[in-house]
Amino acid sequence: MSATSAPKLPGSMGNSLNFLKRILLPLIILSVAHLAASQETQHKSQPHGLEHLLPQLSHRGNHQLELQKEESRAEYRIIIAWILCFIAASVSSAGGVGGGSLYLPILNLVAGLDLKSSTSHSAFMVTAGSLSNVLYNIFFASPGPGGKTLINYEICLLSEPCMLLGVSIGVVCNIMFPEWLITALFAAFLASSTYKTCSAGFKFWRLETEEVRRGEAFRLERGGNEVDEKGMEEPFLGGGEGGGLRVPWKDLVVLLMIWLCFFVLHVLLGDKAGKGVVNIKPCGVAYWLITLSQVPFAIVFTAYILYDKKKKRLQPQSQQDIDGKDIAAETRMEALPMFVFPSAALFTGVLGGLFGIGGGLLINPVLLQIGIPPQITAATTTFIVLFSASMSMVQYVILGMKGIGRASIYAAVSFVASALGLAIIEKAIQKSGRVSIIVFMVSMVMVLSTVSITCFGAIDVWRQYTTGSYMGFKPPC
Signal sequence span per UniProt (predicted)? Predict the structure, then answer.
């Protein structure tokens, strides 16, 4: 054996070394090379990732700014809606109407509420405004002739049952009639009522002007030294000094019973989707029995009120309770047929349910056309609206209305604005001696309501037409 010859390894070890040289070593080299190449690629692409990160951060910042701007716009819209609702409540309260036809467009278009929320919020606002108006007329307003309150509870008693029944009938007609027909009927009726109300306002204005001239002539005849205040009184201006607060508690109890009976029936029936306290199948036997039971309720209550009124007419009344202009007002009312107020209330209730607005905007011009003095008409209409609007409000609450806190804020705005508007209009009447201002305020509300609700309805009709929706008559269920 030579010194340079290497020792031979065993066969298995030689095979292992050959395996490492031929298979594993190239794999290790390729893995290292791939790792280096990937690190170099990652290092090269890192500046490119930063270029994408900066636009993303900028986009997020712009999105946050847009959200903040949208929240600011929403706050401004709410503030503007409060201001407009305050003005609408003041004007409506002065005219003795609920104002729901003015609240709906404001809440929907300005405040951004959907139509369902706008309707429920409007019920809160009308209730609060009517309550403020009624409390003011009872406790703070100047009393009418003989120290009586301006609210005519007899008209309220005769009107309330048939009006609530008419609303139920009108709601069924609202479901059945197409939108275009409802809009056309509403525009035609309210335009006609606006014209007649304006005519009545000018008539009252002429009567007041003649009365002022007669008073001025009477003062000149007496030498201008003495002023006969009675000669300066306007024919429809209540000016008697107080005989204390007179609240007919019996009439209030009857009105509350009427309210409770119809309220229970409405809660059992639920809303249009059949949602109520008790699960009653819409258009089932129980549904129609409850619906039709409103007819005998209205007939029984109205018959009782008419009988009680007839009995009171037969009783002698002391001369100190009725005198002066109160005799003229009572004579005009007594000369009317006994069924005129229930019939008028049923008619206005049907129209109110059909058009989806409160009855105040409809019954007010009807009472003016009958011949009821404007101040009594405004106070009495508000008292009637309080019962119908409160029924809708409580029903919304029981059926799970959302946003009660927000609706309460709008209601508080309406409450304050109604009292303020009524105080301002009373001061204006006392200063000018013209109660025709009330009639012109009603006319203004009716004009605004005609424009707003008609435009609202026209938009819905156009949307139905463009989307190809069915525009014919529908079944009641």
Answer: 1-38
